[in-house]
Design brief:
Blueprint: E1 4-8, E2 18-22, E3 28-32, E4 48-55, E5 58-59, E6 64-68
Antiparallel strand pairs: 1-4, 2-6, 3-4, 4-5
Length: 69
């Protein structure tokens, strides 16, 4: 589905801090790992992050940036 992406880093990232942002106005970015689990739309591994973007009308495809610390 557009606006819903899973990124596999190849190493464990569910125990790290993350920061996500978008260039689109009035669009929100949601980041989910398997440690959070509640907001994830898919089953993911500790090496994966799921990113979803939405606007007032629902899912919205937008350029986004993810920083993993």
């Amino acid at each position: 589905m557009a606006c819903d992406y899973m990124i596999d880093f190849g190493f464990q990232v569910d125990d790290r801090f993350m920061s996500a942002t978008t260039t689109a106005l009035d669009t929100w970015i949601f980041v989910c790992t398997d440690a959070i689990g509640v907001a994830c739309g898919h089953t993911i591994s500790p090496n994966e992050v799921e990113i979803t973007s939405r606007d007032y009308n629902g899912y919205a495809d937008a350029k986004s940036y993810l920083i993993v610390y």
